[in-house]
Amino acid sequence: MFRITLCDNHCAGASVAPRECEGQTIARESRPRKERLSVMVEKTIDLTGISANSVEDAVQLAISRAGVTIKGIHTAHVTNIDAMVEANKVVRWKVRMKVTFQVKDELHE
Fold it and tell me: For the chain: N or C, fewer Cβ within 10 A?
């Protein structure tokens, strides 16, 4: 939640970092310091899930398998769905997705 005001010495979009300019604020967080969200880094990877049952199963399988080694998956964006056909019947669903998780500040030993 930022309140943005431009001063006469800066053009629009020049800066979004908090800065004072002749008493005017370019951008300043409007919430108290305690309520600000913590800074975080996220990583997005591509996954493909394949299931003979359904699209939902393909998504769940890919997320479950990735979740064994990746902790904190919080978003899956399905980018493509393919139906594999044999003898005029759908035999498998192939789902491509982008999965996002938070990068933790932990050291690995």
Answer: C
pLDDT of residue 104: 82
Structure tokens, 98: 């982008």
Q: Do 45 and 87 share a structural domain?
A: yes
How do beta strands 24-25 and 41-51 pair?
unpaired
CA separation for the pair 95, 10 (Å, rounded): 47
In tens, the pLDDT along 32-64 reads 555 445 667 899 999 999 999 999 999 999 999
Q: Are residues 50 and 94 in the same domain?
A: yes
Number of domains composing the chain: 2
